[in-house]
Design a protein that fits this description.
The chain contains eight helices and ten strands. The protein is globular. The strands form two sheets. It has a seven-stranded mixed beta sheet with strand order 7-6-5-8-9-4-10. Strands 2-1-3 form a three-stranded antiparallel beta sheet. The protein is α+β, with helices and mostly antiparallel strands. The longest helix has 18 residues. This is DUF5947 family protein.
Length: 223
């Protein structure tokens, strides 16, 4: 665990508060584009500020300015998620990644030139030092990871049900704002030492919704 990354996450957490506010009708009218201050619809694009990892709400016009731009302060976050039913990862490979819980997301940072591993906690997202040899072994077996767009997409892993023998592990290529949304709902709903029933209901709802809106990409393992 790298506790020094928590302050950096606090910058991004401003965007997470926007996700939680979006569920309250009285606050929707207060949401504005963070570049031009135009009013926003409930469903609107997001940008990621590369250096700070901050997620920004944007109007369609501002978001279009950063479509496909590689060298820019901001990048537009994709809206499309991919469900990977054939993703290959053994229990041993997961353990070699040294993630202390059974949920995490991994993205390529264009600034740091490496893959970053983060996992949600009641305090927010925590960065975990990633053994690159263990990551590369997984990447070599899963062609989908070669398409991972830097900064704006992440491999999102949910092995909670798998660890308890009640569900198969789930793997997605997810927009990075969806990953931070998951972190935000965990932080907002966690109670006590175990989290309480409400947070697990919210986690289950998050992955059900993500699975429904993702398109299925199969037959890509063993590249």
């Amino acid at each position: 665990m790298n506790e020094e990354t928590l302050p950096a996450f606090e910058q991004a957490f401003g965007a997470l508060r926007q996700f939680t506010r979006a569920r309250r009708p009285t606050s929707r009218a207060t949401e504005h584009c963070e570049l031009c201050s135009a009013g926003l619809a409930q469903e609107h694009p997001h940008l990621v500020e590369i250096t700070s990892r901050q997620i920004l709400c944007a109007c369609d016009a501002c978001a279009m300015l950063f479509d496909g731009m590689e060298r820019s302060k901001y990048k537009r976050v994709s809206r499309q998620a991919q469900y990977l039913p054939d993703f290959e990862m053994t229990d041993g490979q997961w353990e070699n990644l040294l993630i202390p819980i059974n949920m995490a997301f991994f993205y390529r940072s264009s600034i740091e030139g490496t893959v970053i591993a983060l996992y949600p906690s009641p305090a927010g997202a925590v960065e975990s030092l990633l053994p690159l040899e263990a990551w590369n072994e997984i990447a070599e077996s899963n062609r989908a990871l070669s398409r991972l767009l830097p900064d704006v997409e992440a491999l999102l892993v949910n092995r909670v049900g798998h660890a308890h023998g009640i569900a198969r592990a789930e793997y997605y290529i997810a927009p990075i704002d969806e990953c931070y949304k998951l972190v935000g709902l965990i932080r907002s709903n966690w109670r006590g030492l175990s989290g309480g029933s409400e947070v697990w209901t919210e986690i289950g709802r998050f992955f059900s919704d993500l699975r429904l809106k993702a398109y299925v990409v199969s037959g890509e393992a063993n590249a």
